[in-house]
Amino acid sequence: MTTQPSKQLETFENPIQTRDYRIHMEIPEFTCLCPKTGQPDFARLTLDYIPDKKCIELKSLKLYIWSYRNEGTFHEAVTNQILDDLVIAMKPRFIRLTSKFYVRGGIFTNVVAEHRKKGWHPQPPVFLESFDEQFNTRS
Where is the active site? Predict the structure, then answer.
Protein backbone atom coordinates (compact mmCIF):
# COMPACT_ATOMS: atom_id res chain seq x y z
CA MET A 1 0.00 0.00 0.00
CA THR A 2 1.40 3.40 -0.94
CA THR A 3 0.71 6.63 0.86
CA GLN A 4 -0.99 9.28 -1.26
CA PRO A 5 -1.05 13.07 -0.94
CA SER A 6 -4.23 14.45 0.61
CA LYS A 7 -5.89 17.81 1.21
CA GLN A 8 -7.49 16.48 4.41
CA LEU A 9 -5.95 17.86 7.60
CA GLU A 10 -6.54 15.89 10.78
CA THR A 11 -6.36 17.22 14.32
CA PHE A 12 -6.25 15.93 17.88
CA GLU A 13 -7.33 17.51 21.15
CA ASN A 14 -4.85 19.94 22.67
CA PRO A 15 -3.72 18.17 25.86
CA ILE A 16 -3.01 21.47 27.69
CA GLN A 17 -5.76 23.95 26.81
CA THR A 18 -5.26 26.13 29.90
CA ARG A 19 -1.85 27.47 28.83
CA ASP A 20 -0.50 29.36 25.85
CA TYR A 21 2.45 27.45 24.43
CA ARG A 22 4.09 27.54 21.04
CA ILE A 23 4.41 24.62 18.66
CA HIS A 24 7.20 25.09 16.12
CA MET A 25 7.54 23.00 12.96
CA GLU A 26 10.00 23.16 10.10
CA ILE A 27 9.12 21.70 6.72
CA PRO A 28 12.29 21.81 4.62
CA GLU A 29 11.04 20.06 1.48
CA PHE A 30 7.96 21.93 0.23
CA THR A 31 7.47 21.88 -3.54
CA CYS A 32 4.90 23.28 -5.93
CA LEU A 33 4.97 24.34 -9.58
CA CYS A 34 5.36 27.81 -11.03
CA PRO A 35 2.00 28.63 -12.65
CA LYS A 36 3.75 30.54 -15.46
CA THR A 37 6.51 28.11 -16.46
CA GLY A 38 5.51 24.78 -14.91
CA GLN A 39 8.97 24.56 -13.36
CA PRO A 40 9.25 23.31 -9.77
CA ASP A 41 9.54 25.80 -6.91
CA PHE A 42 11.16 24.68 -3.66
CA ALA A 43 10.67 26.22 -0.23
CA ARG A 44 11.33 25.78 3.45
CA LEU A 45 8.16 26.33 5.49
CA THR A 46 8.24 27.33 9.14
CA LEU A 47 5.03 26.93 11.10
CA ASP A 48 4.55 28.44 14.56
CA TYR A 49 1.24 28.27 16.35
CA ILE A 50 -0.39 28.56 19.74
CA PRO A 51 -3.16 25.96 19.83
CA ASP A 52 -6.57 26.48 21.34
CA LYS A 53 -8.61 23.26 21.48
CA LYS A 54 -6.94 21.36 18.62
CA CYS A 55 -3.44 20.54 17.37
CA ILE A 56 -2.50 19.43 13.87
CA GLU A 57 -1.67 15.76 13.35
CA LEU A 58 1.78 15.44 11.76
CA LYS A 59 1.20 12.69 9.19
CA SER A 60 -1.85 14.47 7.79
CA LEU A 61 0.18 17.69 7.60
CA LYS A 62 2.93 15.87 5.70
CA LEU A 63 0.43 14.44 3.19
CA TYR A 64 -1.29 17.82 2.88
CA ILE A 65 2.01 19.58 2.13
CA TRP A 66 2.88 16.82 -0.34
CA SER A 67 -0.41 17.48 -2.19
CA TYR A 68 1.00 20.74 -3.58
CA ARG A 69 3.87 19.00 -5.40
CA ASN A 70 2.12 19.02 -8.79
CA GLU A 71 0.02 22.17 -8.37
CA GLY A 72 0.76 25.40 -10.16
CA THR A 73 0.46 28.26 -7.69
CA PHE A 74 2.07 31.58 -6.83
CA HIS A 75 4.16 31.78 -3.65
CA GLU A 76 1.84 34.32 -2.05
CA ALA A 77 -1.28 32.31 -2.87
CA VAL A 78 -0.01 28.96 -1.61
CA THR A 79 1.29 30.41 1.66
CA ASN A 80 -2.06 32.03 2.41
CA GLN A 81 -4.04 28.95 1.30
CA ILE A 82 -2.05 26.68 3.61
CA LEU A 83 -2.54 29.14 6.48
CA ASP A 84 -6.29 29.39 5.79
CA ASP A 85 -6.67 25.59 5.71
CA LEU A 86 -4.77 25.23 9.00
CA VAL A 87 -6.94 27.92 10.62
CA ILE A 88 -10.12 26.13 9.47
CA ALA A 89 -8.86 22.78 10.78
CA MET A 90 -7.47 23.92 14.15
CA LYS A 91 -8.90 27.35 14.98
CA PRO A 92 -5.66 28.21 16.82
CA ARG A 93 -5.19 31.19 19.12
CA PHE A 94 -2.32 32.34 16.90
CA ILE A 95 -0.58 30.96 13.83
CA ARG A 96 2.24 32.18 11.59
CA LEU A 97 3.44 30.49 8.41
CA THR A 98 6.72 31.60 6.86
CA SER A 99 7.56 30.37 3.36
CA LYS A 100 11.16 30.84 2.23
CA PHE A 101 11.35 29.98 -1.45
CA TYR A 102 14.71 29.13 -2.92
CA VAL A 103 16.22 31.34 -5.58
CA ARG A 104 14.40 31.56 -8.91
CA GLY A 105 15.69 33.90 -11.60
CA GLY A 106 18.12 35.41 -9.10
CA ILE A 107 15.33 36.30 -6.63
CA PHE A 108 14.58 34.80 -3.22
CA THR A 109 10.96 35.15 -2.11
CA ASN A 110 9.82 35.05 1.53
CA VAL A 111 6.13 35.18 2.40
CA VAL A 112 4.86 35.52 5.98
CA ALA A 113 1.15 35.11 6.79
CA GLU A 114 -0.45 35.29 10.25
CA HIS A 115 -3.81 34.81 11.92
CA ARG A 116 -4.96 35.72 15.45
CA LYS A 117 -8.13 34.37 16.99
CA LYS A 118 -10.55 37.21 17.68
CA GLY A 119 -10.22 38.34 21.29
CA TRP A 120 -6.93 36.51 21.92
CA HIS A 121 -4.07 38.58 23.31
CA PRO A 122 -0.62 37.15 23.98
CA GLN A 123 0.77 37.12 27.49
CA PRO A 124 3.44 39.76 28.11
CA PRO A 125 6.94 38.37 27.57
CA VAL A 126 9.08 37.50 30.56
CA PHE A 127 12.72 38.53 30.29
CA LEU A 128 15.10 36.67 32.57
CA GLU A 129 18.68 37.63 33.20
CA SER A 130 21.14 35.23 31.67
CA PHE A 131 23.67 33.34 33.76
CA ASP A 132 27.36 33.34 33.07
CA GLU A 133 28.45 30.34 31.06
CA GLN A 134 29.03 27.32 33.29
CA PHE A 135 32.04 25.04 33.08
CA ASN A 136 32.58 21.69 34.73
CA THR A 137 35.86 22.87 36.24
CA ARG A 138 36.54 25.57 38.83
CA SER A 139 39.38 28.03 38.55
Answer: 34, 41
Q: Which one has a higher pLDDT value, 98 or 125? A: 98
Query: Which amino acids are annotated catalytic?
Result: 34, 41
The annotation status of 58 as a binding-site residue, yes or no, is yes
Domain boundaries, the chain: 31-116
Residue 75 is assigned to a ligand binding site: yes
**31-116: in CATH 3.40.109.10:** no
pLDDT of residue 138: 55
pLDDT in tens, 8-40: 999 999 999 999 999 999 999 999 999 999 999
